[in-house]
Automatic annotation (TrEMBL):
Keyword Magnesium: no
Official protein name in the record: THAP-type domain-containing protein
Protein species of origin: Cyphomyrmex costatus
Entry keyword annotation includes Zinc: yes
PROSITE patterns: ZF_THAP
GO molecular function: DNA binding; zinc ion binding
The entry's keywords: DNA-binding, Metal-binding, Zinc, Zinc-finger
Stretches assigned to the THAP-type domain: 1-59
Signal peptide range in chain numbering: none
Pfam families xrefs: THAP
Highest taxon of source: Eukaryota
């Protein structure tokens, strides 16, 4: 099952949360910077849940 890539977040699809792929370009770079994870790069399967996007990323 897919889960959220945010630190300390255990939200997953099977728990009823929506997950979103990282966008490309400047918006995706902003998401990664706002996650505050050192030396981490999202893969094509990395996702963020709706809660983490709202609380951590603040798009």
């Amino acid at each position: 099952m897919s889960g959220c890539a945010a630190v300390n977040c255990s939200n997953r699809i099977d728990k009823g949360y929506r997950l979103f792929s990282f966008p490309k370009g400047k918006r995706g770079d902003k998401w990664v910077d706002n996650m505050r994870r050192d030396k981490w790069t999202p893969t094509t399967s990395s996702r963020l849940c709706e809660v983490s996007i709202t609380l951590k990323i603040r798009i």
